[in-house]
Amino acid sequence: MRFRCRSGTNQENRASYLAAVRRLLITLFFLMVVSVPVDVSALFCSATLHVKRQFPGSMDFYQRRFPAADWQAVSLAAWDHAQLRAWFIRPRQHSEGCVIVLHGISDSRSGGVGFAPMFLERGYAVLAPDSRAHGESGGELVTYGLLERYDTVDWAHWLLRSGCSRLYGLGESLGASVLIEATALEPVFRAAAAESAYSDLPAIAESRLPTPALLSNAIVRGGMAYAYVRFGLDFAQTSPLQAIAITTTPILLIHGLQDEKTSPLHSRALAAANTRAVLWLVPNAGHTGAASAAPLEFRQRVLAWFAAH
């Protein structure tokens, strides 16, 4: 009986020991994966909020390319006193409709100007701004919609004061997500078109990191926490998905099926959140590549969307 009792006790002790080792290994693995050093998250945050500026170049260069319009360099003081700069382009015969074109990350207003001819030919004036912390606009930090959405609404009011009675918006990549969020703040746009928008900032940030999923999640969450502590930026307050769910602005979502930077799943999620939104998935188009992959259809769909509203 003693032998049996001792044997049972040894088995119980062994089981307890193995369970303790298992818990220890799980804890160590969790700490190794999740507890990312602060400097890694800080580095990620700094690289994300400070992007290399691409300056738009001379307005004269674009004026020579599109001479049948009046060009004007304009500026606007944002609520935080950042000076935002843009080009305002009016066709010789203006219909009082205006389109604001928002560029993507690390771009400038020169990227938006490429869309101007299709609107100018239909009598729309075009405003192509440099987003804050881009091009020649002021601001030190890219805030991924936290401040840019308010900048967009401020530009919309500037357009209304400048004689535009019907406002529309076209956004590309980050500009698309910013535009969606701006429409939820105030219904100043009659309609909007958003190409290659992301639906969720943490999700798109994690997908861009070349690290395992758990580590990417920890880096992004740590970077967001660092941004809040260091700069007072609460990225939990920015969400294109939540914005499109409450906006009353009709939105045309455009996304290339070959987009390897922002999965088409983002636009699918955005479309599912708003029954008024229309989704156009473009075959053979990469990131913000619809106008290149299907130029005639892009023009027809966007212009028809604006004309219908």
Write structural notes for this entry:
By secondary structure, this protein is of the alpha/beta class. It folds into two domains: 2-34; 55-201 and 237-307, Alpha/Beta hydrolase fold, catalytic domain (Rossmann fold, 3-Layer(aba) Sandwich). It contains 13 helices and eight strands. It has an eight-stranded mixed β-sheet with strand order 1-2-4-3-5-6-7-8, sandwiched between helices. Strand 1 and strand 2 form a beta hairpin. The longest helix is centred in the N-terminal third of the chain and has 33 residues, at 2-34. It is elongated. It starts with a helix and ends with a helix.
DSSP strand tally: 8
Main beta sheet: 8 strands, mixed
Please report the number of helical segments: 13
Q: What is the CA-atom radius of gyration, in angstroms?
A: 25 Å
Number of domains: 2
Measured by DSSP, the beta-strand proportion falls in 15-25%
> What is the CATH architecture descriptor of the largest domain?
3-Layer(aba) Sandwich
- Highest CATH level, the class of the largest domain: Alpha Beta
How are helices and strands ordered from N to C? Answer: HHHEEEHHEHEHEHHHEHEHH
Terminal CA distance: 89 Å
Biggest sheet strand line-up: 1-2-4-3-5-6-7-8
Global mean pLDDT: 89
CATH homolog superfamily of the largest domain: Alpha/Beta hydrolase fold, catalytic domain
Share of residues in helices: 40-55%
- Structural category: alpha/beta
List low-pLDDT spans.
1-5
* CATH fold title of the largest domain: Rossmann fold
* C-alpha geometry: elongated
